[in-house]
Structures are given as C-alpha cells and as structure tokens.
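Objective 1.3, modelling of assemblies. Example input:
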Amino acid sequence: MPSQTKQPGGADALQKKGLSYYMDKFGVLLVFLFMFLILSLTTGTFLTSKNLLNVVRQVSVNGVIAVGMMFVLLTGGIDLSVGSVVALSGVVSATFAHPGQYPLIVPVLLGLLVGLVVGAVNAFFVVRTKIVPFIATMGMLSIAKGLALVISKGRPISGLSDAFCFIGSGNILGFFPLLSLIMICCFVIGGIIQQKTHLGRYIYAIGGNENAARVSGIKVDACKAAVYLFSGFFASLAGIVLAGRITTGSPASGEGYELDAIASVVIGGTSLNGGVGNIWGTLIGVLIIGILNNGMDLLNVSSYYQKITQGAIIILAVLLDTRSKRS
Amino acid sequence: MVLACAACSSGSKTSSETTTAAETTTAAAETTTAAAETTTAAAAGDTTTAAAAKPTLDKNITIGVSCFSLSAEFPATINEAIASYIKELGLSDKVKIVSMDAQNDTATQVSQVDNMIAQGVDGIIMLPMDADGCIPCVTAAKKANIPMVVCNGSVNTKVDSCVKSDDTVAGKLEMQALADAMGGKGKIVILHGPNGISAEVLRRQGYGEILKSYPDIKIVAEPSCDWSREKAMSTVENLLQANPDLACIVSENDEMAMGALQAVKDSGAKVLVGGIDAIADAQAAVRSGALACTVFQDAVGQGRGSVDQIISMVNGNPGKDIDIPFVLITKDNINQYFPQ
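Predicted structure (tokens):
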C-alpha cells in the first residue's frame, strides 16, 4: 500500500504505529477478508473459480464508475449523474452498433464522447456558476436520463454487432472476462493519476482545504473541472461495457448506479468531505459490494432481507473505518 | 356505443344513426377483442371492423395520459398506441394528449394526476403504478367529475372503466407451458418484478395456482430483479452457481427473462426460461428456440381500447370494463402472431 504522507488527511496516521494504525490502513481489507472467509465456509460454491470469475464480472461496471467517482469525492464534490450517463452512453453507442453499420470504434467513441460532454456540463455548472455539485449533477441525472429515453424512444436497443457485445460479454484467453480487464485498466490509470501526477496531489489538496490550495497557487477550477470529466468518462465507459454485457442499450439501465458507486468508494475509506481516500480502498469497496450481492444470492437470502443486509453492511463498514481513523 | 355519442351530439344525423348506435353497443365487446387480434395478426382488413364503431367528437378536448413509466417498452408502446390510434381516427386536431411519466413512483403519479386535474383535462387514461397507492388518483378525478380510464393495471376501488388484461391469466399461461416443458418436475427460480406492484403480485398468483397441481416442482429462490435485464443477469449468474441442477427460470416479464437467458447462455447450462410481454427481443428469442415461451399482452389493443372508452365517456356515456386477452406465444405459434 502506498505511503499516505502525500495525503493531508492520512498524515497523522504515521504518528503512532499501534493497532489503530493497521486498522486505519487495512480496516476495510479486513472486512473484505472476513466476508470472503465466511462465504467460503458457508457455501460450497463461493470459492470456485467459476463463481469468483462471476463476481469479478459483476463488479466491473460498478468498478469503472467508482474510479471516476472517487476523484470527485476526493475534491469534496459528488457526481449523481453517473447512473444516467451509463444509460445515455449505452443507448447512444448501441444506436451505432448494429452489425455491418459502422466500425466498432464509432459507437465506442460516440459513447465516450457522451460522458465527456456530460462531464463538461457538470464541470461548467460546478466551477463557473458555483452551483453545489449535489444539485448540478442531480439536474444532470434527470437530463441525461431523459435524453436516453428520447434517443431510444423508451425501448431497449438490441440486435447489436458481435464485436460490440464482445466488449461486455467476451472472454480473453478463453476464460477471463474482458470487461474485468477493462476495469483493472481503469484502476491502474486511476492509480497513476492519483499517485504519480501533480493533478492527483492537487485533488487531495483541494479536498483537504480548497482555499489553502487556491492560495498556494493550485489551479483549483481546472482540477475540479478535470474530476467531473473523469467521472463522466468512466461512467460512459461503464455504459458501453454494460450495453455489451446485456447485449442491449437500455434506457432503463444504470438506475441507482450512482449510489452503488458512492457506497463502494465510501466503504473503501474515501471521505465525503474530500481529501481522504485512495484507489486501493475503492477497489476493496467495489469488491465488498460485489461479494455481498453474490454471497446473498448463493445463500438464497430473500430479496427483502438482501436490502436490509446491504444497508447494514455499508453503515458498518464505514463506521469501522471512521472509528479506526478517529482513534 | 361510440356512435351513440356522435348521435346525441350531432343533431343533423340523429334519426339515421340511433339504430346503428344500438347495434354497436351490443357489438362493442366483440369489437375490442377483434381489435386486439387485429394488431397481432397485423391484418389490415380487421381494422375496418373497429372503424365501424369509430369514435367521434364535436369539440376539442385534452386527454391526460399518466403512465407509471415511459422508460419500459410495454407502457411506452401503450402510450404510443394511444397517440397513433387518435391520429388514425382522424381526431388529432380535436384531441390534445398530455402524457406524463411517473417514473415507477406512486407518489409522482398521484401528483401528476392532480396536476392534470388542475389543468382541467377532459379525460384521463391512467396506467397505475400501484393498485392501492393510486386510489387517490381515482378519487380526485371523480371529485372533479373528470372521466378516467384505468388501463393496463387495476386500482382497488370502483372505477368507471378499466381496460386491461388479467395478469393472473398471464402467470397461469406461462407457468403451465413451462411446467409441461419441464415434464412436471424440477427446481425452478421465479424472478420477481418490484415487490408489491399489482402486475408482479397477480402474475405470481397465477404461477401459484398452477404450481398447486405440481408437487414435484420446487421453488429454490424468488429474487426481486425490478423488471431489470442487468439485475436479472447478475442474479441468475449467481443462482446458477448455487443451483447447478436448476431446471427452469420463470420470469415475471421479458426484460428479466432476456437477462436470465444471457446468463444461462454464458454459463452453458441447459435451463428453460420463460417470460411475459412478448417484447421484440423475446419474440426473436422464442423464434430461435432460446426462450421457451412468452405471453403476449396486447399493448396496442389496450391503448386503443382506452381511447375508445375515454372518448365515449367524455361524450357522456357510462364507462365499461374491457378485457384484452393474453396469448401464450411459443415457437409453434409465433409466426401466426408476429409474422417475420
């Protein structure tokens, strides 16, 4: 795990290396390992390569969105529009992805363009007009959803080309889901931006104290604009991947995905106030949500209780995290 | 029935048309069924039968259409059928349609219907989200003396007119076909829509009635996948791991059935999948033999029936209930209902 000295929020953790230090660093990881162990012991099917590949496949869409969401949360912002961007980019790319219509690159680029445009509009309202991100992106949630419905006339767009569907449903080397490889690439790119670039450090600084960052010469507006572009980009990539996975561009897809992504990032230790968190935590958060859903299905937990358990685990994981950070 | 209104409103033709009007009333029930078949068989000839009872209007009216959702294919098709039927009747100049999307939220639907009433619409066609939650909509319309047709679903109170297909029947048709295909025994999973909404509850009831006579069919899980393809896909991927000997997936709609089918296909398992609604994807899947069956609910027929009713009611006639029949669609009869 990388050093947290660069991160304003994590700096104090280095002062004492007691149990709380390790809880701080590995708290969520322990929750994950605990859940993993329990599921391996209680079900005969959880710990099989087929099922684990299933989990990896199922978390991929959320994982891709979560990478973008993490950057937004690190600046102390929020992006509620991602679920609708998933639907919109899915519908737009599917529209151009019928067999023999255009080369594969066309639907993919158009889908990604959708995310960048939505991200740019979000950035404009947040940075220029100073509308709070919650409201600006909530408005965009509705607008993007509406556009997806308009473009698709409220109907799923199916009959997509094999190449397009391969993005979401194909395997590489005969077994590993391509969409999971895409997710892993997103995490690597996210990790590089976060830890190896100036932008990454500026984002923490802005989340820690925006005014201080501004005074110290950081181009705060440009950085904030960048995180909304990231978020839109990753969400639209997720939309393309999802459309490939369900072999359909559906305006009804992506519903509530913003909440899953936020939950994953927050479970992973990122603070909603900004400035604290890292990409590895986000990955663990995504996996926790993934094995939770998978495990409850394997255990045949009734869907009523699944909802209750999901909520409880989210609160519990964050509680554990904040308590260990406070001590 | 519909000509009767034309008769009372247009003075010039009164005497000549009263007799026909009487006949039409008796024929009305048949007409709607015929209309339902028309769209399925896509035989243009039959539309003229419906045209015999062509509703007319002598004033400009506004009709509010409140849909529980416009992002799902089925209600969206009803909504479009309403508009295109009005156009087909040549009433586009006289009838203004205000469509609202309640986005699967009962509270939103209640306030949207309130808004329509406040706008002073002349009639409302409502596709209710929830049988109990939408009672206030019916009460409010009655209080304001605005005729209302409840379409596609039902509301647990007395309504003037209800145009729908009985969801219990759909459940029975699907379950019976799947039970037969399974040879009357095996493990099944039932994919639920959003728990508690009427279509979901009634379809499940239909399954239950059939399953009573099949003690060897065992339900291993009943997850709720909220009518969503992607949720159904993930859920079925998981359930196939937990239940490798699964025989059949009974889905309460086609969207979820399509997700389940994708998961089954990816896993290489041999599991029967059935759905309800006969959406375009499901038709293709039934034709190719991938989907065991679907049940055709005539969205266009429901839309047209609702228009007939609402115009008749706006013209002062009492509303009536109309049943648009369900049809089981399998590989054997698909070409009859959905010609290639």
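Residues 1-52 of chain B have pLDDT under 50 and may be disordered.
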